[in-house]
Structures are given as structure tokens and as C-alpha cells.
Write a structure and sequence with these properties.
The structure is a single chain. With 341 residues, this protein is mainly α. The protein is 77% helix and 2% strand. The protein has 15 helices and two strands. A hairpin with a 7-residue loop joins strand 1 and strand 2. Helix 1 packs across helix 4.
């Protein structure tokens, strides 16, 4: 128990210290801030989400005491509470006759839906906080001032567009971009923590395979609803729905990647195929993201991974003709001919 208490205090204070680097303005602080959830995930995935919740509360109080209460609330909203929610979901388990070790863990597809849902809650909260001025107006003013200041600082402009034109390009999906950045922060730190714990044998749950992710069917109607609302409405609600479309589609990118991993597993050079795919993905992110969303939707309704597995099973059951088999058949034919003669 004393070790658990020490680990809890250390995780909370370390997470707070990583975020404080940004508030204080230390060089390279953004990298530290991006790693702020890592101690929380390490603690929770090793010792349980309850201790992680205590660590989060301690970290929030430390930041509030050293800076401002608003900064402490920000730590809880962006880092602490989302991490605890995802940990609580990830560590849910029940007895299962078919699961390894007799335990059935919370499905990775449902965990993906919660992960995207947290990003959606951030966006809705931002709309509520800026209800007086309007979230789109606030974002456009922020982007205009930021871009104008950046262009004035640079001696030569890297682009031939005015600040207003750049804002028109970025602003429509800026809210979703920020939410996705925060969601990726949690995903990366959670995977890093699980990898470290598996390496040293301290993980509570086994790592789920990406190729086995199955998304809940409820996500498709939600995606359709956001598309319809974004198409029909203008103003704040329309802007929010427009950005929620991106968040609602995010789990389907994971679903598409699941199909890619499943397809690569059917080949004899899985690693080479995955390396090639992710290199291509990094070079054509926007286009391949749309393709992955469509593949994820198709897998949800037509079970592409199961079809790939059945296709591989059929191929494995088909007898292959080898040189030795051909030679044996030729000898059998020659013997039959001799007997007939």
C-alpha cells in the first residue's frame, strides 16, 4: 500500500509538472505538455483507475495552488478527467468462456467510440463557453490575429495569401482539428503507457489488436445526423455540426485501419505491407482518410474482416500443386499407360 500511495503522488505531481512547463514558458514545453497524460495512464493501467483519479485530483490541486484555479480546471478538463474515463472503460472486464484467460475485456471498438466522444464533449463545451460571442467568431478573430502577427514577424511571407484568406481556409474545421489533436494526445500516451507496462509485465489488461476492432453500430446514425444538421443549419449550431462530422468520422478511420491490419495479416510479409501503407498514408493523409472512413463503414455493415478471414481459409484449404506432385502424377499416368498396353 505505501508503494501505491507513493506511485499515486508521483504520477499526479509529474503530470502537473509536465503541464506547468507550458504555463511557465519553458523551451520545448509543448512536447512536455503532450506527455502530461503519460504518468496518469501508466498508473491507471498498472494499478487501476481509482488511484489514477486520486492522482488527477492531486495534480489539479497542485496546478491551481501554483498558478490559478482556472489552470487547475483546465488540467482536469483536458488531461485528467478524460484519462480517468478512458481508464475506467478500458479496465472493465467480465468472465467470458471464450476469452483468453476466462476474462472478456471491454471491446476496443467501444473504447474508440468513448475516445471520440470525449473530443466531441470538448467541442460542445467550447461552444457553451463562448456562447456570447459565438465560437466561429472567436476562432476567426484568434486565427486572424495570430496569422497577422506571424506574417509580420517573418521577413518573407511563406504563402501568397492574406491573413483573411488563410483564416477562410482554416477556420471551418479548426475546432475539430484542435479536438483531434487532444484526442491523439490521449491515444498516443495510452499506447505508450500500455507498451511500457507490457514490456515490464505490470499491465492489468492485455493489449487489444487493432485488426480485431469492431465499432458499435450506433456510430453510423450519429455520423448521418451530424451531416444532415451541418447541411441544413447555419450559425453556431451549423458550425458545431460541421466540426462534429469530423469527430464522428474519426472512429471509422480506426475501423479502416483495422481492415488494413487484418488484410496485411493475410499476407506473408505483413510488416512490409504495413510500413508501405503508413508511408503512403503520411503522404496522402486527407485522401486516404476519406478512403479509410469508407472502408470502416463498409466493414461495419458488410464485415470485411470476416470475409478476408474466410477467403484466406478457402485458399489455405485449396491443395497447392508442387513440382513433386506434378512428377508423381506424371509417373502415375505413365504406369497406367504401361498397364493398358
Amino acid at each position: 500500500m505505501p508503494k501505491n500511495i507513493i506511485a499515486t503522488l508521483a504520477a499526479g505531481l509529474l503530470s502537473a509538472a509536465l503541464l506547468l512547463a507550458v504555463i511557465i514558458g519553458q523551451p520545448g514545453a509543448l512536447i512536455f505538455a503532450y506527455l502530461a497524460p503519460l504518468p496518469i495512464y501508466c498508473l491507471g493501467l498498472a494499478l487501476g483507475y481509482r488511484l489514477a483519479a486520486v492522482a488527477v485530483l492531486g495534480g489539479g490541486l497542485a496546478i491551481a495552488a501554483l498558478t490559478t484555479p482556472l489552470a487547475g480546471i483546465g488540467f482536469l478538463a483536458v488531461i485528467g478527467v478524460p484519462a480517468v474515463i478512458l481508464l475506467q472503460r478500458a479496465l472493465l472486464a467480465r468472465p467470458g468462456a471464450t476469452a483468453a484467460g476466462g476474462v472478456e475485456w471491454y471491446p476496443a471498438g467501444h473504447l474508440t467510440a468513448w475516445w471520440a466522444g470525449i473530443a466531441a464533449v470538448w467541442m460542445i463545451a467550447a461552444v457553451i463557453i463562448t456562447a456570447g460571442d459565438g465560437i466561429e467568431t472567436v476562432i476567426r478573430e484568434f486565427l486572424f490575429n495570430f496569422i497577422e502577427t506571424a506574417l509580420q514577424t517573418l521577413q518573407t511571407a511563406p504563402i501568397q495569401l492574406s491573413p483573411a484568406e488563410v483564416v477562410d481556409v482554416i477556420a471551418p474545421s479548426f475546432l475539430a482539428m484542435i479536438a483531434i489533436s487532444g484526442a491523439l494526445m490521449h491515444a498516443i500516451n495510452c499506447m505508450l503507457a500500455q507498451g511500457l507496462l507490457v514490456r515490464f509485465g505490470h499491465n492489468l489488461r492485455p493489449s487489444p489488436a487493432l485488426s480485431e476492432v469492431v465499432l458499435p453500430r450506433l456510430l453510423a446514425p450519429l455520423l448521418a445526423a451530424t451531416i444532415i444538421i451541418a447541411w441544413l443549419l447555419d450559425g453556431t449550431i451549423g458550425y458545431l455540426a460541421q466540426n462534429l462530422v469530423v469527430i464522428a468520422a474519426l472512429p471509422y478511420i480506426v475501423g479502416g485501419l483495422s481492415v488494413v491490419h487484418s488484410a496485411a495479416a493475410q499476407t506473408s510479409s505483413r510488416i512490409a505491407w504495413l510500413i508501405g501503407f503508413y508511408l503512403l498514408f503520411s503522404m496522402a493523409l486527407n485522401y486516404l482518410s476519406v478512403v479509410l472512413i469508407l472502408v470502416g463503414l463498409a466493414d461495419q455493415w458488410f464485415d470485411l474482416k470476416e470475409r478476408l478471414a474466410r477467403l484466406r481459409g478457402q485458399r489455405s484449404r485449396t491443395p497447392r500443386t508442387t513440382a513433386g506432385d506434378k512428377e508423381n502424377r506424371d509417373n502415375d499416368v505413365a504406369n497406367d499407360d504401361d498397364q493398358n498396353r
